[in-house]
Model the fold of this input.
Amino acid sequence: MNPIVKLQGITKDYGQGDIIVHALRGIDITINPGDFTAMAGPSGSGKSTLLNIISGLDRPTSGTVEIENLTINTMSRTELSRLRRDRIGLIFQSYNLIPVLTALENTEYILMLKGMPVKERQDIVRELLKEVGLEGMENRFPRELSGGQQQRVAIARAIASEPALVLADEPTANVDSKTASGLLDLMERLNKEKKITFLFSTHDKNVMARADKLLWLKDGKINDYRTA
Ligand SMILES: Nc1ncnc2c1ncn2[C@@H]1O[C@H](COP(=O)(O)OP(=O)(O)OP(=O)(O)O)[C@@H](O)[C@H]1O
Ligand SMILES: [Mg+2]
Done:
């Protein structure tokens, strides 16, 4: 099986001179198609840094990042954004929806960027919003939705272009535990039914327990790797 993500010897230093922060100190990880993996660890252990490096939003100081057997280290910013658009869905702690766009418009945005005709993409997006439990809320703006509902829009947006991989940085950090559990149900269903690979970071033990694999990050290193 070809891995979706292969990291080898990843380090990341921030700053210069005397005040270097060694955020990542040699990470080797393989994520395979269909994995539903959580990444946990104390605040400052490097979870967001690692997710940003996998998505190509940030570059490692050393080491190689392969996405579906393509080395992304040497890709230009344009190539990286195309790779993200086509293969990777991103979900953030604070939803990051565009406030002046409706749920439907937020979700269809990437399909629009890909040049998909309006009728086709709106049909896809209406179906997706239904799947994530937001039927009837297509025309609401983010401010008219609860945190959990906004995150459902963000999940719909992340999977709209049928990515191979979804990266989620603390997707349940801003919602109550019942809503968090519902979001996990949704992610799990998308993982099983659409075979989308998920890698998400969390501080929440209940969320960790839902993963098939758990990576434990400490001081910029993988400290423990549990397979359920
Ligand atoms: N842009 C930056 N410039 C300088 N240092 C940074 C930068 N981003 C992160 N760091 C440092 O790198 C380390 C890892 O940070 P990171 O945000 O990846 O941790 P985290 O595990 O996501 O933490 P949290 O659980 O609080 O979100 C921390 O020491 C942080 O202060
Ligand atoms: Mg973080």
The chain is about 35% helix and 25% strand. Residues 47-48, 169 surround magnesium ion (ligand 2) (CB under 6 Å).
